[in-house]
Each structure stands twice: as structure tokens, then as C-alpha cells.
Amino acid sequence: MRSQRIAEIEQYIYSHKTVTLDELCEVFQVSKNTIRRDIEEITKNPDIVKTYGGVMINSQTKKMLVSFTERNISRQDGKRRIAEEAAALVNDGDSIFIDSGTTTLYMLEYLKNKKITLLTNNIEVIVQAIPYENINLISLSGTLNRKTLSLTGNNAARLLSTYNVKKAFMAATGVTLENGATNSSPEETCIKEMAVKKSLEKYLLADSSKFGVVSLLTYSDVDDLTGIITDKQPDEDFCEYAAEHQVQIIVAD
Questions:
Q1: Which of 21, 191, 223, 229 would give a disulfide with 250, using CB separation of 3.0 to 4.6 Å?
Q2: Helices (H), 185-253
Q3: What DSSP designation does 184 have?
Q4: In Å, what is the CA distance from 115 to each residue of 23, 94, 95, 135?
Q5: What is the pTM of this model?
Q6: Which domains, and CATH codes, for the chain?
Q7: What is the pLDDT of residues 117-132, one digit of tens each?
Q8: Alpha-carbon distance 211 to 183, whole Å?
């Protein structure tokens, strides 16, 4: 089906950043005319732009798709404070989901003495949790995304759908009132959506740099969240909306 091929081509472009039309023809076994028609459709997405003889991710989106290591280095103090605040919401006996992300991974440091069931697709969290016998660790299956150090795809989402989770701790590339919590990785979105759907309480961990940023895919509206944990108070409009919709704003000191 053309719609499925277009989705696969789009994902290929996100993975490779810059590709030629000849390369796409070879990979997807279609003619150049077919690829040109597909590209006309794909470039309606502002994240993807045409170049001479091919297509590429635009410069703004490239900044959002920086590697896990680069993202982990930036704003570490604020991320640790947010993670500590999030971990304080977890009680013995809770079942929790920890999302992939450079803020959520710090939670394990503050959870290691609690008796919990932990579901995650975050490779760093999985490795950190191994020594702690008090943590019942459930690792989601999937395909390794080396940029985010996470397991991704429909298999992980299907496994997650079989569990009832008390609290989910989510990461996002950006968050706005209009677009909600957004994500730049198509492979991870189905997992994030399932985590929000299957969890009784949903907390977004987002430092102040994430507010006002819109990325490719929305996985949750703001009013579907239980709370947002951040390092600075959001602007007045955001806070008013959150209060009206019973979304708790927690500012980590």
C-alpha cells in the first residue's frame, strides 16, 4: 500500500537524515517517478525538505534529534532535581513505567531502596535496576534505538498493553498547550501512547527548555496528564490551563 510505503520512507529519512532519490528507489524497489510522487506527499511535513537530488531533515529538526549522550550532558542539575521529585511520588508496592529519556533515567538513583514493579524500555534504567532485588524489573521487548538507548516498536507497545500500571513517568521533546507532549521519534510514539493509556497516573518530566517546543508527534494532551514536573514555573497561561484541568505543576527546588 502506498500509505504504508510513505510511512516507511519517512522513517528511513528520519533515520538517515539525508538521502538521495536513487537511494530511495533502490531501498524501496520503486521507480524514480513513484519516489518523486511520494516525496511530494512526504515534504508536506515541515520536518523534511527537498535538496538537489534528494531530501533531508531540516536544520531545526536535526537539533531535536541529537544523540542520547549529547542530550544527557545538557542541563544535568535540573534533570536530577526533576527526577528526584518524581521518585518521591513512588511508594512501596507501586507498579510504574519509566519512559526513555535523559531526565527519566536519573529516577533509578532515587528508587533503588523501594519495593516496586518497574516496566521500562529505557536501556540505561534496565542496566541500573539489575543489582536491586527489591525492584521487580519488567523489560519491554523491541528494536534497539541507539540514539535514545531505548527499545522501540509495536512489540514493546503490545507487551505494555497487557499490564495495568499505577504511575507512568514520561519524557518529551517538547510540550505546548496546543500540541500537548510531543516526541521526535516515530518508533517510540506507540509506546508512549500506550503508557499514557494504561497508567492510572501520568507524570511528564520536562525541564523548562521543553516548554513552547513542538516536535513531530503528539502522544498526550496536557489535560490527560496527572502532573508535570519541571525545574521552573511555566508561563501564566500554561499554569492557568493546568489549574483549570486539574493538572498538577510540580517545580523541583
A1: 229
A2: 186-198, 236-244
A3: S
A4: 51, 8, 9, 6
A5: 0.72
A6: 2-64 (1.10.10.10), 68-251 (3.40.50.1360)
A7: 999 999 989 989 999 9
A8: 13
